[in-house]
Amino acid sequence: MAARDSELNTYNRSHMRGMSAVLFCLAACVTAAGQKSPPSAEMERQFKQAMAAEDQGDLIRAESLLTGLHIAHPGIFAVDESLGLIYVQRQDYSRALPLLEAAAGEKPGSDVAHANLGAALYELHLNQRAEFEFEKAARLNRLNESALQSLGRVRMDEHRPADAARALKAALALKPGDPDLQLDCATALLAAKQLVDARKILADLADADNSARAQALMGEAYEQDKDFATAGRHFTRAVELEPSEENAWLLGAELLRHWTFSAAAFEFQAASQKFPDSKRLRLGLGAALFGDAKYAKAIPVFADLLESDPDNAVYAGMLGVSCTTVMEEARPQCGVLVRYAQLHPADAKASTYAAVSLLHQPDSQDQRPLARKLLESALAADPKLAEAQFQMGTFLQDDGMWKESIPYLERAIALKPDFSQAHYHLAIAYWRTGRKQDGQTEMDLQKKFSSQQQQDLDQRLRQLTTFVVEVPK
């Protein structure tokens, strides 16, 4: 969908401004409003001057004349509607709203008045009220395709694509072949998983090969149809036609969705340089690098994201996974994670990740008090976190506290029976404390679940990619 205000401004100019051109005459409007005496010639003259000024683009003069009429003669539909539309053209929707509300009340049978009011409400993010007004406009005039199109758009904003599709299909029936309406309708149908109808509309699009939006929608259609190669070609074509942030995101997300990590990283890297303020592009880049086993390169991406949004638990989690996967050398960017964990003690996973990253730094001995504090914080926040129980157990073993480590490792295994590393460390603890048979049992279990570590990493990656490709704009 196009941006909210560009949608409405187009609607204002084609229908709201059109209303001013067919406001009948002021006398008729005054009579309709229930005035006892007809307007004076001066009132008529001022109103015509206001309309002429507006047509010439002199909104200041038009506003001045209409404001004077509104104050001197309240309750006149033509004046209230026209003055409201002046404010709409200036995008001053708060001042437009009471005037358009008054106009809709003064002429309740006008579908255009209700559509105008709905448009202003939509701009003010009062979507439920906007939907009500658009519905009323559509009931009053079944041929008002713009009211139906606006109704579809507000329903899309409310995440009701099936309802949106019904309104947009009705609008398209009134205005077949309109490319913007076709694209809006296809967007809603795809979101509603009505693939057959969506593809029919897309097939009817004129010059679809040269429309970036059409190509992106075709990519989504082929994605839903599980023809991933063709989907990728359409997303690529969309970027070629219009290298926007949105299209770059769609292409990168498509590659990421199917674990084509190297290609995804390439696209996200290029797009991030072009759109440096886009957090979702950087998020996609980090996920692609992580998926491509380039963990060290993913760390600074996630660290920068967390620094830009210091309370974001998602960024902290991603940085934590990356920092605890790369152990071979110091990663100073992981300090961002430690600061986050200290400020967010209720985030048990972040505290655990931060502790592990500290324990694998070159100066880990100096960091042990802080690491223990973070592990204690994690266990206090979530004693059912198997990773935190395991890390506390191994922490104690590093200090030679074999007996003390056993309860933590046993709890880790109770919480996650296929925890291979926990079985291994518990086996060592049992052997060190004279429980040879128990140790052998645990070592057998470690061998049984030896592939689990890679499976856990794959699961993390699946969760990460699923989250990233579904992230909102």
Structure description:
This protein has 473 residues and is mostly helical. Among the domains are: 1-158, Tetratricopeptide repeat domain (Serine Threonine Protein Phosphatase 5, Tetratricopeptide repeat, Alpha Horseshoe), CATH 1.25.40; 383-469, Serine Threonine Protein Phosphatase 5, Tetratricopeptide repeat (Alpha Horseshoe), CATH 1.25.40.10. The protein contains 27 helices and no strands. Helix 9 packs parallel to helix 11 and helix 15 runs antiparallel to helix 27 (452-469). The protein is elongated, with a radius of gyration of 31 Å. Mean pLDDT is 87; it is low at 1-36.
Topology of this structure?
Blueprint: H1 4-21, H2 26-32, H3 41-55, H4 59-72, H5 77-89, H6 93-106, H7 111-123, H8 127-140, H9 145-157, H10 161-174, H11 179-191, H12 195-203, H13 212-224, H14 228-241, H15 245-257, H16 261-274, H17 279-291, H18 295-308, H19 313-325, H20 335-343, H21 348-359, H22 364-381, H23 386-398, H24 402-415, H25 420-432, H26 436-448, H27 452-469
List keywords for this structure.
473 residues, 0% strand, mainly alpha, Serine Threonine Protein Phosphatase 5, Tetratricopeptide repeat, 27 helices, disordered N terminus
- The helix/strand class is mainly alpha
Order of helices and strands: HHHHHHHHHHHHHHHHHHHHHHHHHHH
Just give the CATH class of the domain at 1-158.
Mainly Alpha
The helix content, as a percent range, equals over 70%
Architecture of the domain at 1-158 in CATH?
A: Alpha Horseshoe
Low-confidence stretches: 1-36
CATH fold call of the domain at 1-158: Serine Threonine Protein Phosphatase 5, Tetratricopeptide repeat
